UniProtKB/TrEMBL annotation:
<keyword id="KW-0949">S-adenosyl-L-methionine</keyword>
<comment type="function">
    <text>Specifically dimethylates two adjacent adenosines (A1518 and A1519) in the loop of a conserved hairpin near the 3'-end of 16S rRNA in the 30S particle. May play a critical role in biogenesis of 30S subunits.</text>
</comment>
<feature type="domain" description="Ribosomal RNA adenine methylase transferase N-terminal">
    <location>
        <begin position="32"/>
        <end position="207"/>
    </location>
</feature>
<feature type="binding site">
    <location>
        <position position="99"/>
    </location>
    <ligand>
        <name>S-adenosyl-L-methionine</name>
    </ligand>
</feature>
<dbReference type="InterPro" id="IPR011530">
    <property type="entry name" value="rRNA_adenine_dimethylase"/>
</dbReference>
<feature type="binding site">
    <location>
        <position position="119"/>
    </location>
    <ligand>
        <name>S-adenosyl-L-methionine</name>
    </ligand>
</feature>
<dbReference type="GO" id="GO:0052908">
    <property type="term" value="F:16S rRNA (adenine(1518)-N(6)/adenine(1519)-N(6))-dimethyltransferase activity"/>
</dbReference>
<dbReference type="InterPro" id="IPR020598">
    <property type="entry name" value="rRNA_Ade_methylase_Trfase_N"/>
</dbReference>
<feature type="binding site">
    <location>
        <position position="73"/>
    </location>
    <ligand>
        <name>S-adenosyl-L-methionine</name>
    </ligand>
</feature>
<keyword id="KW-0808">Transferase</keyword>
<feature type="binding site">
    <location>
        <position position="25"/>
    </location>
    <ligand>
        <name>S-adenosyl-L-methionine</name>
    </ligand>
</feature>
<dbReference type="InterPro" id="IPR023165">
    <property type="entry name" value="rRNA_Ade_diMease-like_C"/>
</dbReference>
<feature type="binding site">
    <location>
        <position position="52"/>
    </location>
    <ligand>
        <name>S-adenosyl-L-methionine</name>
    </ligand>
</feature>
<dbReference type="InterPro" id="IPR020596">
    <property type="entry name" value="rRNA_Ade_Mease_Trfase_CS"/>
</dbReference>
<feature type="binding site">
    <location>
        <position position="27"/>
    </location>
    <ligand>
        <name>S-adenosyl-L-methionine</name>
    </ligand>
</feature>
<dbReference type="Pfam" id="PF00398">
    <property type="entry name" value="RrnaAD"/>
</dbReference>
<keyword id="KW-0963">Cytoplasm</keyword>
Length: 273
């Protein structure tokens, strides 16, 4: 590792000016990167899928931690820098050039469990998070998600009932997973600095509640929070049987979505599944 040149030098040598279109905000602070790589616990000998390695700051930290890394990067310009990194850790880094939104991650990783880490642009991160958390098959092959989001989105993921941040993302993250806000990251840690603060969310899959379809739960929360200021009696009107199911499990249809616990949504989805 000591033979690796500083990240800033790698970026200058490979002409990797940050692309706004690709949402590139790079992290250079190796201590911070090591702390991020430590969030899933020891990575020694573990398989890791990193999305969006860019010039490879977090990738270095993952490799230093002893992980076997597969990285998916869309920007071709980053490939030579990542190839250099691969040479410094022979056999430990595989880089796939492509759009992570279009690839089948389980297929890429084979049949063994893997941890996922990423520092991605906001829109891509949220789309992938929704996909990872929303699968019908549970437990998933991935063992943890450690993902950088803008702080406001991170707060929505870990929110509890009764606050305005509580909504679909919170239910999605918490109904069969344990989600925590693992670390706040100041905007000044990035080059170039983004407009808003960031935070890392760590999610581990939990047991799947029995008799609940992920699709039904998704439809229920979409309807309930789609009109979050309205009573559930009104917002769930379009879902046949939903209001009766609410009453059947002892939830007053005059309540609003943001007052329901995640377990209440699960019970409602079970009644409708
Ligand atoms: N991981 C590096 C770091 O922390 O310094 C770079 C982070 S930068 C915020 C996001 C990276 O994700 C960029 O390198 C960008 O090219 C890549 N990226 C953006 N959209 C992507 C996609 N759909 N699939 C794969 N990589 C993507």
């Amino acid at each position: 590792m000591s033979t690796l040149p500083p990240l800033r030098e790698v970026i200058a040598r490979h002409g990797l000016s940050a692309s706004k279109a690709l949402g590139q905000n790079f992290l250079f602070d190796e201590q911070l990167l090591d702390r991020i790589a430590a969030l899933p616990g020891s990575l020694e000998g573990r398989r890791v899928l990193e999305i969006g390695p860019g010039p490879g700051g977090l990738t270095r930290a993952l490799l230093r931690a002893g992980a076997q890394v597969t990285a998916i990067e869309m920007d071709q310009r980053c490939l030579p820098a990542l190839a250099e990194l691969g040479e410094a850790f022979p056999g430990k880094l595989e880089v796939i050039q492509g759009d992570a939104l279009k690839l089948d991650h389980d297929e890429i990783m084979g049949s063994e469990p893997y941890a996922i880490l990423s520092n991605l642009p906001y829109n891509v991160g949220t789309a992938l998070f929704t996909r990872w958390m929303g699968g019908e098959e549970w437990p998933p092959l991935w063992t943890s998600l450690t993902l950088m989001f803008q702080q406001e989105v991170a707060q929505r993921i870990v929110a509890k009932p009764g606050v305005s941040a509580y909504g679909r993302l919170a239910v999605l993250a918490q109904w069969r997973g344990a989600a925590k806000l693992a670390m706040k990251v100041h905007r000044s840690a990035f080059t170039p600095p983004p407009k808003v603060m960031s935070a890392i969310v760590h999610v581990e899959p939990a047991a799947m509640p029995e008799g609940v379809s992920a699709k039904v739960l998704e439809r229920v929360t979409e309807a309930a929070f789609g009109q979050r200021r309205k009573m559930l009696r009104q917002s769930l009107k379009g879902m046949p049987g939903a209001v009766e199911a609410l009453e059947g499990i002892g939830i007053d249809p005059q309540r609003r979505a943001e007052t329901l616990e995640v377990s209440d949504f699960v019970a409602l989805a079970r009644a409708l599944s």
